[in-house]
């Protein structure tokens, strides 16, 4: 076996050589060598381990070296191994190149025996602590090194506690612990057939060999098998022998933990807690309350100075905020451990920017150390961090953010009450496009059905509103205007709070904290924009959304869904009139009323986005989405008919009564007359015959529009071809709005985009509408509006034909929601309700492809389209406006295949900006389609 | 301008030089030069035309040449131009390189004047004919050469007819026509200010120039513009001057038309009609009935000999059956025109095979001259050719063939009455998979809704049964068991006849002729198989279908849809039990009962196909297709509840009556008791409480299975993954059936195919089932069954991942129906009902992509899959089993991209075999994906 050096002091070992020294050993060496005051010690190498396992004895000379190193430790510390005065105690720790929970971990206080125990008492002045340490050491050593199970020790402990009426371990006094330790020694003797080894070197010899053997123990072997750890990743374990230091040696001693910066705020101040004259166990046991480190400056100024030095050394070396543990023994600060600190988003952002400004890291490093997704925390309201209530139910975390408000069960009420300034949570079984006006006026949406890509979830994310979807524990009774969760009933108007980041639903109003875009975040994202090649745009459908998107740093609108404008209450009736029209004239009349409304919408959006491009998608959803469902209409018609018959009965009552019983009639004639008058008034205002007729007409239309597979039906450009007047109105509204803005001196860059295109001919047909209308607008308004014309790529065929499409289109935008459906032949709703959960559970699919872009399949189709499109038109602008446009991994792929921009919902814009920068910095460059 | 020779006699002109001589002129030259007796004449070239148009005068020397050629014609014919004895008359015809209806066509009998008219009377002995010819010539010449409109001539004609009480032109006598001709001459004089030109050369000069000028006439120019005829396709028109010949010069004269072979049967016998002593006009006027050419052998044996010579010359030169016109003038047969004869399928097949055997053409030519689609006529029953009745209504020609039978309105009745031997036509609004047992027992299917790719259409084509779909004129009342067409009512049991080739529906039984696979067709298809590279398989779901497919020459089963086996009445209840199962055990119990049934099906198919491969597709459709619809169940439950309540009322009646009126009760007690007993019996046998409970349970299941987009829902391999026990049963049935057959010494080649695969993991999962079950079957049956495992490619993602798929799959089969839906994002049913008609009308799409494979889009996806699959596994077998597999153009594409086989419905197998041969012969070879 290896003939090399098998023992390294922490001053000697190569901090990078984890294979030889193990992860822990290498770390201890590194810390020591960068000048941190680490308790002295040494490492026995993994090679020694392998040699031991081969020959079942320590390699020649190793034991002698160990003894030499122990002597060196005694010299360094001025302590004696087994000394009755000032004993040297050590910890023995295993540590391989990979962290492996299956192996023996740590024996503390090795070197304790009857003699050194007295030394420990003398040094700490704490008899109870010493006996407690001793009895712990005996049990741990027995278990790990001598294979004696825990049970006899635990039984004894119980026995002793019962005898002294101690509820907890900490209630036991020193002499009681002494009694326990002695009993433990007897257990060891009984089980091993030998007395507990009192010679510290015998203890050390046994411990080292036990650690080595644990490498081939069943748990470690199983662990390596399960996690597929191969010999070239880790082979053998090292043994780390570290001097024990004690924080309970008086008022110049102590212990604590700290972050080099505040992990919650990022502030550059050591953050943590410490206890004077205490060991780590005291913190864990909760007997004493630790103090914030800030107080140390007063209480222990010299130690605090050492802590400041430690902080500086740590950060200048690791270039990351560190989470470290320390112990102070008699005025000397020891660093026991350090690792990169886990921080929340605010902390990450501020510390990254400041560490860059302080010269520790570069801008690139600052950008790369933050996972884009965690920025979400900064962009939506959160539950107050100290809130600890229980939730009523948990659904899916469908759109992040916390929101409180009064429950309402339909969109109209949400709008009415929302307009009056009330905070509203819209609660429905599931939502439909016709509910969208309710979304505008709600602070959050809660549904009992539907997945993370249900209508409610997608729309809420788009608007940056909190949403919990698929909360199946809630049973909603629309009609009774109440909902039940288990035994609890919630009535309309009751207040609840939802947390769209976790899916929890709470009763009442839970305090929330509002998001703030900090100065540091602004700085970071500016750096991101400088680093990124991909532009980030936002999906926004209203002027208000556009303003928000711009505030989030969007470089344009990548998707403006014109149909969203159709759904507000003042427009929907006109849209329905347009759909129900039986002649072209009727339809045109409705469109003529919609034109100024849409034009105004576009003006607002263009103004909000002045100087930046705005991509307007022409009408996409099938017409039936703007109408009530057949079931709804059938119910309404039945009720209305019933009501009409009832009223007719009441109207005829006087005549009937007169005929049957004139006396009775005389008596009640007056009252009946009044009832009748009231009925007539009611009828006239609410129940003209044509209400039913209209609803029946609508029902016929709804039935005629019904489709077997609406996802693949009469929608998008197919509507544009079959009803040219609808698209023409929209195109006119866009171009006229642009002309009017341009006249006011506002820079406008409208881009007209056609959805659901499958054939080149469809695109050319719509392009011909645009060209014709453009000419008219130029003549009418006397100003030449510039615009771009392009196509969504969301149909597979369009991607295959991208080369020819690019002759007509100046830009492409991938609609990856629909493209994913078409590429998988998965209907999103059906897949998520029926088989996708099983697919994820059984490992057929790793992710939900509607959340994480499927690079192997959908990505291939995209690559082919990009390649063919650019072959025709090398400067073709290509973007993505599906939900994946806000997902960091998907953004990396978009960067890789050479897209020009991603477009996502407003609140995800900062996330996308950071992800775009990282994609560039990670050196991913555009590759060919067959890469 | 051109200085070349500008006039060619028919003996001189180059028959291939259509640019110079025009199409007609070149043809006349060709006919003359191959030795046919064409009336002599000459051509003035298109170059002369262009020169004339440039300078507005005939090029130097042309008129002199015309006069020389006329002199030559006089010499050749022994007639004189303008002669009073034996006048030479000519026709003047235009003719450019492309046929152009916009140009002046033909002036007949030029050279007629007061003098030559007498000569014509002398020669024909028919004064009426001569005057009629004269008045026609005057009007035509006036119109074409002198620009005098038809109106004054037509008015005069009307006037004369009225005067002589003539109903038709033919009723006018010689002197009346003479009067008309003289009036016509006066009209010409009045309109042109000059007398009608009596000098034949003046007539000729004017006519030639008029023909030349017509090249730049408005109609001709418009025509060239509309059909995008460019100068390199046709430039200028030639003028053909042809001697008139007359078939009415006595009993040694005549006229006729003929085919060189019988166009209906292909028999090698001249087929046609002739009239002795008559001109072509006589045939048109219908005054005399022509005789079959066969009679000529007796009546005019010498002429008949000339006809035989003509036949031989035509076929040996043109190598196609010719359709020719002839005139006999005084014992000499002239051929006026010949072209390739239009023949029906039988004629084409027989003549092709015989012409090949006779050495006229090669096998390749024989194969190439028949359009594969026309073979359809030979493979299904046809209406008797002499039937001339009126149809009741017309729907879409959804599946060819004619069928008569008794109307039934549901599948169960169709099965019941069909089993008893009745001929049945299944008539429904539309069909569903649960109707399939009715298809088996019906001779034809008629639906009032649905397109050519509706369920009814697709299934009927698959089975080779006649189908008319979408016949909207028929209103079906299932409940009343009747249908109405306008005022007519058809009751269940009434006989109708449908013609799936035309879409017509007839009352009563129309005689039909059964198909027969002739010896010639068998020969032709054997040649086709030798020539083709693509193999042709059939789609077949039952042993019966398999037998038929084999008879049609299928080289295997390319698609056996196992779910079709689930739909027959003895199986559906078990399948429904399986679907309604609430536990795995219940489901397994149902599957255990299905196993032997499926195994038996497969045994039957394997036996029928012994020695050939059989591709079995595992369950594809979503489960809800095997259950009734929610609406159906709701109606049934309502009715059943009502019935139950009614019965309950009757049961309680005695008690009620006893209480209210004991006297009455006494009187009716007996009757009530009997009624009650009858009720109880009825209830016990038909209305146990659990009938309703069961239906309610089914309804709940139907609702839970409902999908938004079933096409993209829980089906195919997704079912196989979520309910492994279903696929396992099917796999076991296939492999056990193969084992049992193998034991009986039958060669079996089972191929197991997985539908709707989108990911490699799905395929691997099912493959693991197959391998496991295969091991068990081998152990159980003691015989090692060989099988192949493969994947449908009908999901776009699978095509993109074909490289990786091919590691697991030994074969691919494109399912182009679903692949087309996914590539276009078109739902077939919705597209055909909603927007596809408009797309076809407005030219967005040329074809219905569900009928004609979309090569540019779907074809691209296929090419990518083929390329990637073969890169992994060069010997990968790839086929197609969508409906396109039977469509000739689509087959050519499949050949081009290198597929190994196409699979289509049985009756289309011969068509596909011929198309496969043509694809190879047309020299289309496999190309790369980017070709």
Structure description:
The structure is a homodimer of 931-residue chains. The first copy, chain A, has 931 residues and is an alpha/beta fold. Among the domains of chain A are: 381-513, Glucose Oxidase, domain 1, CATH 3.50.30; 541-622 and 710-793, Phosphoenolpyruvate-binding domains (TIM Barrel); 630-705. Helices cover 49% and strands 16% of the residues of chain A. The first copy, chain A, has 37 helices and 33 strands. The first copy, chain A, starts with 6 loop residues before the first strand and ends in a 10-residue tail after the last helix.
Provide the gyration radius of chain A in Å: 37 Å
Structural class of chain A: alpha/beta
Rounded mean pLDDT of chain A is 90
How far the N terminus sits from the C terminus of chain A, by CA atoms, comes to 45 Å
Active site (chains A, B): 455, 881
Cofactor (chains A, B): Mg(2+)
Enzyme class (chains A, B): transferase
InterPro entries (chains A, B): ATP_grasp_subdomain_1, PEP-util_enz_mobile_dom, PEP_util_AS, PEP_util_C, Phosphohistidine_dom_sf, PPDK_AMP/ATP-bd, Pyruvate_phosphate_dikinase, Pyrv/PenolPyrv_kinase-like_dom
List keywords for this structure.
homodimer; 931 residues; alpha/beta; Glucose Oxidase, domain 1; TIM Barrel; eight-stranded parallel β-barrel; 37 helices; 33 strands; 16% strand; elongated; disordered C terminus; EC 2.7.9.1 (chains A, B); pyruvate (chains A, B); transferase (chains A, B); Pyruvate, phosphate dikinase (chains A, B); ATP-binding (chains A, B)
What is shown here, in short?
The structure is a homodimer of 931-residue chains. With 931 residues, chain A is an alpha/beta fold.
